[in-house]
Amino acid sequence: MNIKYLLLLTSIASSLVATTAWSQTSMEFNNNKNSYSTQRQVQSSTISISAATLSQPHILIVNVSRGNIDGLIKLNGRVLQNIKDRNTRIDLSSYLSRGTNTIEILGKYNIKNASVKVELVAPQTQVSQQTSNNGSLNQTIILQVR
């Protein structure tokens, strides 16, 4: 399996702190008649931002290289937007608050060898995560707003 992972952080502010985690689990089942395989990948980034920037746009972008995606964007467990197209954008600034904000981007895409890129573009911050080849999207961005 060819999985690409890219994390790009650009910051002018000294208050930006970022950590990244990635995990993958794979299971195979075999019985006399059928063979089954399932895989799950999770990408996660933690970023610290200033509450003073919340009056400016914090744009989350989800792009699929080919085909479509069926998924959703959640913030702190609440669904903010469904993802149905190749390119989805949402401004998170009006939904964010001080403290921990957990953004989950979940979905399935239907073209093998397609890739999905998730970007968060905010004042003094840009985070990019990319995954490919397994048809499943499970990415988390944790924003610590201080």
Strand content: over 45%
Choose one word for the global shape: elongated
> N- to C-terminal separation?
39 Å
With strands numbered from the N-terminus, the spatial order across the biggest sheet is 1-2-10-7-4-5
> What is the typical, i.e. mean, pLDDT?
77
Total number of helices: 0
Q: State the total count of DSSP E strands.
A: 10
Helix fraction by DSSP (H/I, runs of at least 4):
under 10%
Domain module tally? 1
Series of secondary-structure elements, N-terminal to C-terminal: EEEEEEEEEE
Based on secondary structure, the structural category is mainly beta
Major sheet attributes: 6 strands, mixed
Catalogue the unreliable spans.
1-18, 20-39
Gyration radius from CA atoms, angstroms: 16 Å
Defining traits:
146 residues; mainly beta; 10 strands; 0% helix; disordered N terminus
Please provide a written account of the structure.
- The chain has strands at residues 18-30, 35-49, 59-64, 69-75, 78-83, 87-91, 99-109, 115-122, 125-132, 136-145.
- The protein is elongated.
- It has no helices and ten strands.
- The protein has one domain (18-145).
- The relative contact order is 0.29.
- Strands 1-2-10-7-4-5 form a six-stranded mixed beta sheet, with no helix packed on it. It has a four-stranded antiparallel beta sheet with strand order 6-3-8-9, with no helix packed on it.
- The termini are far apart.
- With 146 residues, it is mainly beta.
